[in-house]
Input
Amino acid sequence: MDERMNRYYEAADYVKGKLEGRVPLAGIILGSGLGKLAEKIENPVVIPYSEIPHFAKSTAVGHKGNLICGELGGKLVCAMQGRFHYYEGYPMDVVTLPVRVMALLGISYLFVSNAAGGVNFDFKVGDLMIIRDHLNLLPNPLIGPNLDEFGTRFPDMTRPYDLGLIALAEEIANESDITLKKGVYLASTGPTYETPAEYRYFRMIGADAVGMSTIPEVITARHCGIPVFGISVITNEAHDDYDEDYVNDGDDVVKAADAAADTMTFIFTSIIEKL
Ligand code: HPA
Output
């Protein structure tokens, strides 16, 4: 057996021990400043990443580092309060390990979220964007020997984000007078924010929002056939000019994400309730 499988099984067995035979319906990955959703989880079992074999440390600002399992919208979910990023120096196998562990726990859906810069001129700070598609400028996490236990060598990516879940989110938003944008998320390595030329370039190649995460986890989930729903919270607007009094700042990003976290929590919870 590929030695990566041993790591996934060891981590999954540890979490399974805490779930006492229950199988989560959904995995949720909470991005920068979006950890608040975890507070809405009922009867939570909180598992610090430091306790789970082979989980890395969460070093990014606004990422707490707990796996929280419990009920949301009446269903059992496992939520990652913080994720691992390529820019932290972790190899892709470490970045995506939690998704494979959640796959082994038996999740049927993956919900992903992130803080992102808006490069679409129509996007303003505080907007929520349903991720319709992505542009991956990070290394592909499936590079290397294929793990046939999870999926095929050449996974289809025609519908990376589940159309049924997107329709459900739009229905929920309509009923509740919530405006959701929809667009393409681009991930680059970070940790630098973009230069004005890079923001212009990303817009030109079809991005609506830009960040430093999410796509590795989405690719890993799609590899093993798990439907994905994703939301980007727009935390800053791309500056195309060399305006002297503007800077991108990580703390502002976390604050803006935190301010929009309740609406994102509502959307995720309402979808899960209907699954
Ligand atoms: N660029 C990259 N990552 C980000 C941004 C951005 O503007 N905002 C939040 N995460």
